[in-house]
Amino acid sequence: MKKCVISGYYGFGNLGDEAILFALVRALRSSFPGTDITVLSGNCEHTASSYGVKAADRWNPVAVWRALRASDGLISGGGSLLQDVTGLGSLCYYLGVMWLAILAGRPFWIHAQGIGPVRSSLGRLLVRLTLRRARGISVRDPESKEELVAMGLAPELIEVTVDPVLTLDREVADLQMGRRILERWGVKGLGEQKIVGISVREWRGLTAYRLAVAEAADRLVESGCSVVFLPFQYESDVAVCRDIIRMMNRPSSVVDEPLSVVEMASVIACLDLVIGMRLHALILGHAMGVPVVGISYDPKIDRFLASVGKEPAMSVEQPDGEVLIEAVLSHR
């Protein structure tokens, strides 16, 4: 394709999705130099300036239509776009963009997506009817393929690949940049102590898991580590981080500023361990060669951990501080 449109959850400050876009644009430019890329975004100015692409307002049907008509095709993904946990509206939006591509006479591809959960009968029907029109389908884990097959799609049409962020490596990180950011937010002992990064998020009003994280963080500090909280969705994650810090008895830090993909990769590359609820905190940690400990709130966490031979240390629905502490301390 000389001209392509990319659809996903871009331009909303979610660092995981921004990392997907960063990796996807990087791969397209490596494989197809000179490709004209337009991203459907919630913040066109930020997306265009951050990635050197064109951007169209994802909420403006006319802008989306024009972008599709001017393109050679649509890439939908990656990320967890085809799910109805956050509501049927989100699922219908991404499927709707695919139907706009069909109406515009343009092919579309599903790229490295994590599928589901899609719990509603209507949602599953819509996914099946839409994806049967796809030029190609790739998913980021075997369970996503199983989910699509269960919805009625032919297994031979679905390729299992990896999350785009796993194609990144330490070459994208700048260790000096990472150290400067950590020092700016009060992380002490760089080069002398082990540094542990923690990524958490709000989930359905549950709070008991926060105490378990606070207890584990305290134990890490008592054992001689420095602990820093890493928000992946600024500013909502910061509130959860600060709530956990208030529960702690020992000092810790939080990176209280929005970071770019390269900045967060640089910070994570400086760490000795990542404890994560956020999927892409775990994926970036693994990509940077840093050990990870996962806290499950969604099947996508379990799927990724299984792909690297691990299990979640605990779930947010059944928090167990002692089990989390044991898993964390085993990486000391």
From TrEMBL:
Q: Which UniProt keywords apply?
A: Transferase
GO MF term list: transferase activity
Domain of life according to the entry: Bacteria
- Pfam family example for this protein? PS_pyruv_trans
Instruction: Note the InterPro entries from the entry.
Output: Polysacch_pyruvyl_Trfase, Polysacch_pyruvyl_Trfase_CsaB
Q: What Gene3D superfamilies does the database record attribute to this sequence?
A: Glycogen Phosphorylase B (3.40.50.2000)
Q: Which residues form the Polysaccharide pyruvyl transferase domain?
A: 14-299
Q: What is the designated name of this protein? A: Polysaccharide pyruvyl transferase CsaB
Q: Which organism is it from?
A: Syntrophothermus lipocalidus (strain DSM 12680 / TGB-C1)
